[in-house]
């Protein structure tokens, strides 16, 4: 199972923002789309950062409500770990677990090509385990 197979099923649409947008705009977008992170891109769709709900909550906890007026690029994580379409589900799970994050942008030719969430990975892995169990049951029944 690869990242490409997940994107083929879920699609490669990604909610993005420009770095100069405000945290208020980012929070509004996350709430409206019911998502946990937004990828920050430049005009050529190159990944320049990622901003999660946790990032917003952290900065509001530190600076109060005025933090919502800050620019996204002042708060985002700018050192973004990404994956490629050929990476396996197991590799992505390992990267997400080690990095302790729930969203992993997919990069192709230096540009944003999709995003994988921990939910996508777990769903795909559960489907894989169920298929393997079904194959073993079928094998045993025919032996």
TrEMBL record:
Keyword Transport set for record: no
One Pfam assignment: CBS
Gene3D superfamilies: CBS-domain
Keywords from the named record: CBS domain
Domain CBS: 7-68, 76-132
Origin superkingdom: Bacteria
Record carries keyword Membrane: no
PANTHER family, alphabetized: CBS DOMAIN-CONTAINING PROTEIN, CBS DOMAIN-CONTAINING PROTEIN CBSX3, MITOCHONDRIAL
Name of the molecule in the record: CBS domain-containing protein
Species, as recorded: Aquamicrobium aerolatum DSM 21857
């Amino acid at each position: 199972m690869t990242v490409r197979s997940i994107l083929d099923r879920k699609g490669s649409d990604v909610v993005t923002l420009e770095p100069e947008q405000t945290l208020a705009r980012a929070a509004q977008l996350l709430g409206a789309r019911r998502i946990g992170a937004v990828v920050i891109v430049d005009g050529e769709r190159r990944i320049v950062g990622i901003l999660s709900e946790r990032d917003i909550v952290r900065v509001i906890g530190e600076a109060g409500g005025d933090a919502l007026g800050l620019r996204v690029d002042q708060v985002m994580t700018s050192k973004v770990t990404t994956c490629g379409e050929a990476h396996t589900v197991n590799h992505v799970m390992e990267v997400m677990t080690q990095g302790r994050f729930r969203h992993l942008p997919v990069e192709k030719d230096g540009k944003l090509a999709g995003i994988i969430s921990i939910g996508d990975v777990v769903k795909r892995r559960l489907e894989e385990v169920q298929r393997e169990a079904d194959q073993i049951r079928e094998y045993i029944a025919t032996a």
